[in-house]
Amino acid sequence: xxxxxxxxxxxxxxxxxxxxxxxxxxDWYREMRADAPVRYDPARRTxxxxxxxxxxxxxxxxxxxxxNPRLADEFQEPDRPEEGLLFETMLFQDSPRHDELRGVVNxxxxxxxxxxxxxxxxxxxTDLLSEAVTGxxxxxxxxxxxxxxxxxxxxxxxxxxxxxDRDRFKRWSNTLVEAASTDEDTxxxxxxxxxxxxxxxxxxxxxxxxxxxxxxxxxxTQLVTRERADGSRLSExxxxxxxxxxxxxxxxxxxxxxxxxxxxxSNHDLFEELRGDADLQTAIEEVLRYRSPVQAMTRVATEDxxxxxxxxxxxxxxIVWLGSANRDERQFDDPGTFVPDRTPxxxxxxxxxxxxxxxxxxxxxxxxxxxxxxxxxxxxxxxVDTELQPTRSSLIYGVESLPVTYETAE
Length: 410
Ligand code: HEM
Description:
alpha+beta
């Protein structure tokens, strides 16, 4: 489990520090929504916001609540670590710079554009499953064999990374998403991460150069050739930052959506129904609400603001708990129950407002294809009774591995 964010600040509150608490934070969220819906945690020098309405208000108002971590008072301290490449990406930039960066790639993630990618996603899923699901019955780690590699190969394909480089790409992606964990030597971890970043950066720089000279039909070409509103193109650093953002933002999240869905569907004996009439896409939305892969996000107040009788001051850091908002009894009927056909379901699992997840249509498509293929190849899937370990990445919710037993379909 990670303890710090890219700026070296403690992210998870002490209340969620144990394995058990972070795997099931939902009762604690409920208490906080009732007793301390907006609270300041001096240990982390951070505000925590737990109710749906407040979380949504913060996400909707990006003048008052910035995504740029450099605006935080914390940043004025002299011992802050170096800033990373990701800080220059759309995720950490406010408008208008945000909109320019997002505008360059936006259309590639629209459902219409993604439809062309669907057969390839299906082929990847089929390949992975034909390696994992063998014999008549067996056991597999769903994360390692399926939920982890699938999004990585999809984004590699989208960017235009050739098949023979996919394994390297998987390794880099793995290192990048790991945040420093409490039980690991931080220096060693940082060195490993920097080495992976450098290797990856030089690989991408080569690709950028190549696509400038010889444009192809891939996302990397779009990143380096597409003009912004002012007629300029992305710099090499901006193209690199965006590519890495897509990897970091898109992989571990989608992995956990698929894994969390297997947990939800198994615990509710849903696989049989999903082979029949139950609507898969609606059930996936409920997973996004019930076990949200991104539990929380960070903002910085740009001016003093009052919420639930508390005054958040300009420069204060805020964590908005999507995972809690998505269980808010003020917004959802029976929020603690997984309701596979829940409609409407206005969850905040992909965020809200200007920074609403760029990859949401891709994540939905990947998850749907993943389950269609999984259901096609298996007759039964059951969780193995084992001690689960949470994903080691800041504010991302899921498990490191998920052993399941299966019987193959006739
Ligand atoms: C289940 C999977 C996913 C979840 C739960 C998820 C969740 C989120 C959330 C909550 C945000 C908002 C961040 C904020 O407001 O600070 C976000 C933004 C973003 N996501 Fe996703 N994401 C997923 C998959 C993907 C995929 C597949 C991609 C791309 C390949 C992607 C790319 C992005 C990008 C680029 C942003 C920043 C958008 C902006 O700042 O305008 N995400 N995502």
